[in-house]
Design goal:
Number of helices: 3
Distance between the termini: 30 Å
Strand content: 25-35%
Radius of gyration: 15 Å
Length: 123
């Protein structure tokens, strides 16, 4: 059996990590007009990255997949309140979440945003 290894992230470490992410996003040439968090886990990193990018337009999409530790729904589901998707049409959107293990939540969010005309990148 493999031991579960966890990293303890301090507030200073969180600040450094999100600044580094913001720099690497800008260095890639992508300049998001909107930062969208996948709630709940993506809310804090999205806000910090938005500050690092100087992005003022932020929003959140609420997606439930995990119902508890190690328990998931059959498929991710979007929950209310809904993000103003019409606003995203034609805009460059940075999608932020804290974890992307199976990638199913991220895939659903990308699909929804692109269907509304957003150009999406994710971290």
């Amino acid at each position: 059996m493999t031991a579960d290894v966890r990293e303890t992230l301090t507030w200073d470490g969180f600040g450094s990590a999100t600044r580094d992410l913001a720099r690497s996003i800008l260095d890639s040439g992508f300049e998001p007009e909107v930062v969208v968090a996948i709630a709940r886990g993506g809310l804090l990193p999205a806000g910090a990255i938005a500050y690092g990018l100087g992005a003022k337009n932020c929003g959140a999409i609420n997606v439930e997949f995990y119902t508890g530790i190690g328990t998931v729904l059959d498929a991710p589901e979007v929950l209310p309140p809904e993000l103003d998707m019409a606003y995203l049409d034609g805009r460059r959107v940075l999608l932020v979440d804290d974890v992307a293990d199976s990638g199913r939540t991220l895939a659903l969010a990308v699909e929804l945003l692109e269907a509304k005309g957003a150009e999406v990148r994710s971290v």
